[in-house]
Specification:
two-stranded antiparallel sheet; 41% helix; alpha+beta
């Protein structure tokens, strides 16, 4: 594979402070949204944000991820139906009282209309091993790598002016079946993406302070 010289230009401290503060302000305004407009997303925007996610670091550069964009209404309907079956079991059987209490502030329930309303759903799959042809090769730090890529993706979506929701109906095996994925892929995260409906409201949340979150030694 070889090596090449790193393309790097050092920024002055003033620019670094300005750039980092600006990006911090952008990301501080990101919110999870559950009410989507049906307005279509330009294909080039989806391509750009996914290419950003694909640039994430991964264990041994194995890139153990697969991104699936779902825009077809009939497929989104299947996903919603299957997700709601699992979510209904979660709210009625699986979740503890403490868990449900913690969810009260979000006013959520087993119904997930956003899975059909959002113009696109991005489903991220983790690949436990690489399987091409008759060759099977191990992937490393799969969950960590895919998690980092998802972080890149969520930041890129918000930076592009889109809203999203990280959704994890559990279990998510139905996604592998509906989207006809190979055996080496398991659903990791489901992200409805688009524009917010007019007058969309979000919960009032308070983030932990820097002082209580970051320790310096």
């Amino acid at each position: 594979m070889g090596f090449q010289k790193l393309k790097y230009k050092r920024k002055n401290v003033k620019d670094m402070e300005s750039i980092s503060a600006h990006f911090m302000e952008i990301m501080a305004k990101r919110r999870s949204v559950r009410s989507f407009s049906s307005k279509a997303i330009p294909d080039i925007v989806l391509e750009n944000v996914l290419k950003t996610a694909m640039s994430a670091p991964s264990g041994a550069n194995k890139q153990p991820w697969q991104f699936i964009i779902v825009k077809d209404k009939s497929v989104k309907k299947k996903i919603r139906k299957a997700a709601e079956i699992e979510e209904k079991k979660f709210y009625k059987e699986r979740a503890t009282k403490e868990w449900l209490k913690d969810l009260n502030k979000f006013a959520t329930n087993w119904e997930k209309p956003f899975l059909e309303e959002a113009p696109a759903i991005i489903v991220i799959f983790r690949q436990s091993y690489d399987h091409r042809g008759n060759t099977k090769k191990k992937n490393y730090y799969v969950s960590e790598s895919v998690g980092i890529a998802c972080g890149f993706l969520i930041a890129a979506l918000h930076n592009a002016g889109l809203v999203s929701l990280t959704h994890t109906p559990s279990p998510m095996g139905f996604l592998e079946e509906i989207l006809d994925r190979p055996k080496n892929e398991k659903a990791f995260l489901l992200i409805p993406v688009g524009y917010p409906q007019k007058n969309t409201e979000v919960p009032i949340l308070k983030k932990r302070s820097y002082k209580n979150t970051v320790k310096v030694y």
